[in-house]
Amino acid sequence: MSPGRPVPPPLAKPLPDLSSPAPAAVGRLAAAYGATSTHSGLVPLTIARRAPKEDDVEIAIEFCGLCHSDVHATRGEWRLPEYPLVPGHEIVGRVSRVGTAVSEFAPGDRVGVGCMVDSCRECASCRDGLEQYCERGNVGTYGVRDPRNGGELTQGGYSTSIVVDKRFVLRIPEALDPAAAAPLLCAGITTYSPLRHFHVKPGNAVGVMGLGGLGHMAVKIAKAMGAVVTVFTTSASKVGAAVELGAERVVLSKDDDAMDAAARSLDVIIDTVAAPHDLNPYLRTLRRDGALYQLGLPPEDMPPVQPGLLIRRRLTYSGSLIGGIAETQEMLDFCSAHGVASDIEIVRAGQLNEAYDRMVAGDVKYRFVLDTATLHEPSTEADA
274 and 365 share a domain? Predict the structure, then answer.
């Protein structure tokens, strides 16, 4: 267990037997891990899941990826959330029950849930299949009040089950390893979407800034699209890893000569760096009509972009946020067809707090994934 964290309390009540079917009108309890305050760490909880409505899919969760945003959310680093809070928005499991109006999924299907579980469904963005940009605000998988379900607080995938409207459930191809597929539902679609928006095709030159959970997926997906990939990193220790992932070139961004040599060599750059950094040296590596997509969200202001760099070569500086449901399904099918998945390390429930500390320290290659079968295990200092 991480120093200074209390030993988690036992489950508040016994868990029901989920092995036999229950009437469709009956909700269920789920074992979970979540935070009860900004300083509680992740502790065992029992949460209630609603009974599936006619359009709902109930999922028995097998794996859930750990995203750095989970750390920020549970520790109240972005805003003070409502507690208890169960994180997790990279969910893979099997359908256990479906509502009466669901024909798209059946019990036993392997499915996934990503960063959102609903949207207004009416605004221009939703009608265009871009639910992530819902103009009334999409409903996040955890930590958000869900207006379509009585204002319940959404709780995420560090749990044994979840109930989600069929419109926000994704089909996981059986060819994908379910654990390695989980991070595709956040890191995968976050990097796929801007590459797809730029229409990356074979022979394009793609730059990737940063080689963490997002960056390693950007390299893999760009390579699968046929691009020639350059990785920018501040760390010489990551050169070998970048080449191993498929990068043709690695540029140490602190080396001015190396950056000068890369001038006007790239068509598009995917920026995954979440710390403040100067974009101007990277913009100089773009060709005419190139684009830099910002995916990392630094907590502080960035140095200003020099307008002349944009004007002289008609460059685009843009942001991108996950992807819509249709595009996320497209990404999953693409990854299945091209053998693309995340590089992961499986963690048990009792190791979640340690995994959070390791994520903050950058000690993961490249994504942690929770095996939810371990949620029933007692947490001890030995395994935490």
Answer: no
